[in-house]
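queue> pop job 88
queue> type: inverse folding (structure -> sequence)
queue> payload:
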């Protein structure tokens, strides 16, 4: 995910960005706090549908650095502060005031990096990558594959958004270091605790088998998760599937991507070998 993708927002206030931030003393606030395109919307919808008494917020950036970068992006592109930006900023101020006064519950997610990058491009195609659309407004297969190849070739895993999100955001704001404890591959989720903060960490790939159990253990609630908001179920599903099936990355590029701290933490050696084979073995039509 590149810099400009991080800050694309809806013009109107999203339904998961309440205008008032209310914290309830006897119910730990729940933050669904993660990078984009990792299935967070489905988790938020599940919690809201359960009508839990806890205040529940959905956010991508809370760190001072992240908010400064977002504000700089808005100014650079001559855009007024959006409702979403004001919400993020107000929530951060509220957290700073109440950081040590309440217990905090954080749900955060990860996703296989190549799929994450591709999903980000498709999600923002109508905003940032209109040059990749055909005359019918659908993703052009040839143009999109060419762009993705160039994108992955230029990707710097040491500075990439997904590689550093947990350190730049979760660790910076709540001092939770996901890399301090191995991911629990057997259970399909991990729970980290630091003082009055608890964090549930789960991969999108583990949602189907582990999300319901994870939410029950972490929140003490039986919640039926909603379906993940993935590209294969959107209006560009046909083109998305065709491009996924055709994209073939050079082996050195795949090895670079899966050598990152992020990939090595969240995926086993066998899974990484499987991902490399998957993304490097196909031939472009």
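queue> result:
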């Amino acid at each position: 995910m590149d810099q400009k993708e991080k800050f694309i927002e809806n013009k109107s206030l999203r339904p998961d960005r309440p205008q008032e931030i209310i914290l309830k003393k006897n119910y730990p606030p729940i933050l669904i706090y993660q990078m984009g395109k990792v299935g967070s919307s489905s988790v938020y919808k599940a919690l809201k549908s359960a009508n839990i008494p806890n205040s529940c917020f959905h956010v991508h950036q809370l760190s001072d650095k992240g908010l400064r970068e977002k504000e700089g992006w808005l100014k650079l592109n001559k855009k007024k502060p959006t409702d979403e930006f004001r919400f993020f900023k107000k929530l951060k101020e509220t957290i700073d005031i109440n950081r040590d006064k309440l217990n905090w519950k954080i749900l955060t997610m990860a996703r296989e990096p190549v799929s994450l990058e591709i999903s980000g491009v498709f999600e923002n195609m109508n905003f940032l990558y209109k040059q990749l659309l055909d005359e019918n407004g659908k993703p052009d297969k040839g143009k999109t594959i060419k762009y993705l190849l160039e994108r992955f070739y230029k990707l710097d895993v040491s500075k990439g958004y997904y590689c550093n999100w947990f350190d730049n955001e979760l660790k910076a704001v709540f001092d939770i270091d996901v890399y301090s404890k191995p991911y629990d591959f057997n259970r399909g989720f991990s729970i980290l605790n630091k003082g009055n903060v608890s964090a549930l960490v789960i991969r999108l790939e583990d949602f189907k088998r582990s999300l319901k159990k994870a939410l029950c253990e972490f929140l003490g609630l039986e919640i039926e998760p909603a379906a993940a908001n993935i590209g294969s179920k959107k209006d560009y599903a046909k083109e998305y599937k065709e491009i996924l099936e055709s994209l073939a990355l050079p082996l050195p590029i795949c090895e670079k991507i899966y050598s990152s701290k992020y990939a090595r933490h969240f995926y086993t050696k066998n899974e990484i070998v499987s991902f490399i084979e998957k993304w490097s073995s196909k031939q472009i039509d």
